[in-house]
Specification:
The chain has 383 residues and is mainly alpha-helical. It is built from 14 helices and ten strands. A hairpin with a 2-residue loop joins strand 2 and strand 3. Helix 2 packs across helix 4, helix 3 runs antiparallel to helix 4 and helix 8 crosses helix 10. It is globular.
Length: 383
């Protein structure tokens, strides 16, 4: 089967401008079907824009790839089934067998990339099932329509086993992002869906372990002084409620405090009010139910963090909660912080603990050392 060029493809993602009542322009990336807006598809896409403009765009790009694949196979999204979704996944992994376009092993996509397509496709069909043809009545009893059955068949299916078979996560040591760039910090900060999760991330950037952040109590944060303390720390005794806190106090940047304050005044307060449960902990479970307002658990935050990375266009398999701490250590080395300052910020007892956190190829540290050793060359091209 001959593949169509980008210009020939039926579905495209196009940037539109909308004028608001106040005269301001709002931009959205919507999907067109033969150059005309696709109303139902864009209705789903708009729900993703509510969380983030970047999320809406990325989801639209992935769904467009899937829709064009279905079109080349002669299917509409409304009559596609599990078989077509699995076939699409295999085409992402191996290429198209119809015209012998087989991908070489070294050129295959990653587990997280294919997983991102699965998330978008299942999200789309779940939304369709919730909003279209799901409450049709036949006679006296309520039955699901045929298309609703197809939609449910797609979004309820677990495609992970396919990914596991064809894109196994290789053994050995994982390669994580150990030090964030300024751009990566910005991208992650913009793609959290709650103020709580953004605040947790920003606090880890001040050198705290994730366990220390999740242990923080409301009384351990002073919004006026912009300081915060954990209630437990590795290798040290836990702080008892009401007792003098033996753990380090860290001064927070203004942007981190702004996010923390907004979270406390909105999401956290709402969780306590809805649950009727007051909590001493700073970071709480926000979802309504029996665990609402209980302390935020690590696995819940980690799941949200990886989803955030995926929305930000990053490899979620390379994301870890400890990288904020590593980044802080390297930033302190870049600014020539003393051993005492580093020990204070991290809560370490011995400076030898810094070894796993160091980036031996950091250009900023390299240049600073050069400046100290060769001051005579500062005027000869070293800036």
């Amino acid at each position: 089967m001959k593949h169509k060029s980008t210009e020939e493809k039926r579905f495209k993602i196009v940037r539109f401008a909308f004028e608001m009542d106040n005269g301001q322009l709002v931009y959205r990336h919507f999907i067109t079907d033969r150059l005309l807006p696709a109303p139902v598809i864009n209705e789903w896409l708009e729900t993703n824009y509510m969380g983030s403009a970047q999320t809406g765009k990325e989801y639209g790009k992935r769904l467009t790839v899937f829709l064009n694949y279905l079109d080349e196979k002669g299917y509409e999204y409304s009559n596609a089934s599990n078989r077509e979704v699995k076939s699409f996944i295999m085409s992402l992994i191996y290429g198209s067998g119809d015209d012998l376009r087989i991908k070489a092993p070294e050129n295959r996509v990653s587990y997280s990339t294919v997983g991102g397509y699965v998330i978008v496709i299942t999200s789309f069909y779940r939304w369709l099932d919730d909003n279209y043809e799901t409450a049709v009545r036949f006679g006296e009893k309520s039955r699901r329509a045929d298309k609703s059955y197809l939609y449910g068949q797609i979004y309820n299916y677990s495609y992970k086993y396919i990914l596991g078979i064809h894109l196994p996560r290789m053994g050995g040591k994982k390669q994580f992002i150990k030090w964030y760039t300024d751009e990566e910090i910005t991208r992650l900060s913009e793609h959290f869906t709650t103020l709580r999760d953004k605040a947790v991330f920003l606090v880890t950037l001040e050198g705290f372990r994730i366990d220390e952040v999740l242990s923080m109590r409301l009384e351990g944060y002073d919004a006026q002084k912009h300081v915060i303390q954990p209630s437990r720390s590795k290798g040290r005794a836990d702080a008892l409620y009401g007792d003098e806190n033996p753990h380090r106090t860290v001064l927070l940047p203004a942007r981190t405090c702004k996010t923390l304050d907004q979270y406390i005044q909105t999401e956290r307060m709402l969780a306590e009010n809805q649950s009727g449960r007051l909590s001493e902990y700073l970071f709480l479970n926000l979802n309504q139910g029996k665990t609402q307002a209980e302390p935020l658990r690590y696995h819940n935050y980690y799941r949200s963090f990886k989803a955030c990375a995926l929305r930000a266009g990053m490899d979620a398999d390379k994301i870890r909660t400890h990288s904020g701490r590593s980044t802080k250590v390297m930033r302190m080395l870049e600014t020539d912080s003393s051993d005492t300052e580093i020990l204070y910020q991290t809560g370490w007892k011995h400076i030898d603990s810094i070894l796993p956190y160091k980036d031996d190829n950091n250009p900023i540290v390299m240049e600073r050392i050069f400046r100290k050793q060769h001051p005579e060359e500062l005027g000869d091209g070293i800036k």
